[in-house]
Amino acid sequence: MTDKARFERLTLPHMDAAYNLASHLLQTRADAEDAVQDAFVRAYRAFHQFEGADIRPWLLTIVRNVCFRRLQERRRADNVVSLDEVSSRSTGAAFEADMASADRSPEQTAIASSDQALLAHAMAELPPVFREVIVLREIEDLSYREIAGVIGTPVGTVMSRLARARTELKAILNRMTNQDDRNAM
Amino acid sequence: MQCDRAHELLGAYRDGELAPEERRAVAGHIGTCRTCSTAVADDERIGRLVKKFGRIAPPPALEPRLRAALDRAEETSLPGKPVETPHLGMDAPKARALAKRVAALAAACLVAVMATWWVMDTTRHAEQIEHDILSAHIRSLLQDSPTQVASSDQHVVRPWFAGRADFAPAVKDLTAEGFALLGGRLDYVADRRVAVVVYKRRLHLINVFMWPSSVAATESLAPATSRNGYNLLIWSRNGVSYCAISDLNAAEMRELQHLL
Ligand SMILES: [Zn+2]
After folding, report:
1. What is the mean pLDDT of chain B?
2. Using N-to-C axis directions, what is the helix angle for A15-26 and A55-78, rounded to 10°?
């Protein structure tokens, strides 16, 4: 088997996880797709350096770093707008509309829409550093140790950041559902 | 357990990241504290919501797009040429070129020992370790003897390290398994004294470097292998990092790893 075939066999099963992380961090489909492609090519070029048992955290590290570089570039381009604002308020709604057009049947869309939209909005309000730990832990089921490797912090930081991220997400969701209740009345 | 402390640990408790005794203490507290049991229930609910609705699926076109991008990347990059098996008689420039290649390979696996193998940027420290191990290995091949204490008896080699190394390195007589014990020596890697136990398999000399490590892992970490040249195997067990280096094939190196 060639290196490339081996690389594809190992990494393509994690394309979903890679795209999921990139989407949450960058908040637009086009950017997420570009970032995943960029990350896969970088990973392929660095493949000889990978000797671990589990390629998923290694690949997600590269995806994560590519995404944060892009967020930084955006911030530089916007010059005065902060990173958190760029990735949340200004793009959150656009992102939701963007994602809603993804391939889903009308029934699925109807059932999922309210909770899903709520969550998408709430996640978009979180700063990227909170978003990534939520995604890696709750969706991708990475251990604290693996998350620490991906985001480049000590394990203790993962624990405290995750705690703050959850508290924040809970507060945002509570605020949103209360608003919905008031609107319904 | 105090409520404040328990509250801090609730997330780690739910994630199964607590040590058994902490886990029991938090569980006991949750059983008696309404605030904490509510917080856990809330987290659980939000966790389920994120798990159920949080995943954003890629468009079907992404996979073909990635494959095409990788095809292009393959065309524009030259695959690494295999490393030639080193011979003692090789000339200096060739040895240096080889050393560079092996060093590059070693970089990846040494970062592994430092438990940050997925970090792409090799640290200065890792570079120094990798450089030193390679130099030490080549030096041992060029010297009259690769050992300071030459003995096939583990009961001679093991006590020799006592008082010389700051830990007790593994020394095993594996003659029956086909790895003859040649002896031991001290070497310097990244400015620290490390223990080296030397084995021989047929004509291949194997240096096993050992030093105390901060890696808590008891299982083996990331085995690393070069192509056709020196093979390196790196692992960590019970607070000791091991690096075996030789021109022996990877499968037999791994055999040695399991025996040690
Ligand atoms: Zn409590």
Report:
1. 77
2. 20
Under 8 Å between Cβ of B188 and B79: no
Query: Domains in chain A, ordered, with CATH?
Result: 1-79 (1.10.1740.10), 106-185 (1.10.10.10)
Q: State which H helix or E strand residue B46 sits in.
A: helix B34-53
pLDDT for residue B222 is more than 50: no
* B179-219 pLDDT per residue, tens: 999 999 998 877 778 899 999 998 889 999 998 876 554 44
Distance set, CA B157 to CA A94, B154, B208 (Å) = 70, 5, 14
- Closest of B236, B167, B248 to residue B205, by C-alpha: B248
pTM: 0.55
Q: From the CA of A157, how far away is ligand 1's center (Å)? A: 22
Cα separation, B1 vs A176, in Å, equals 34
Q: Residue B118 is nearest to which of A137, A149, A173, comparing CB atoms?
A: A149
Say what the pLDDT of residue B96 is: 56
Determine the average pLDDT of the residues in A109-125: 78
Which whole-number Å values give the CA distances from B226 to A151, B122, B233, B253, in the listed order?
28, 17, 9, 12
From the candidates A51, A157, A159, A173, which should be mutated to test the interface with B, based on the most B CB atoms within 10 A?
A51
| Interval between CA B30 and ligand 1 midpoint (Å) | 6
- Pairwise CB contact (< 8 Å): B66 & A36: yes
User: B243: domain CATH number?
Assistant: 3.30.200.100
Question: Which residues constitute the domain of residue B214?
Answer: 128-259
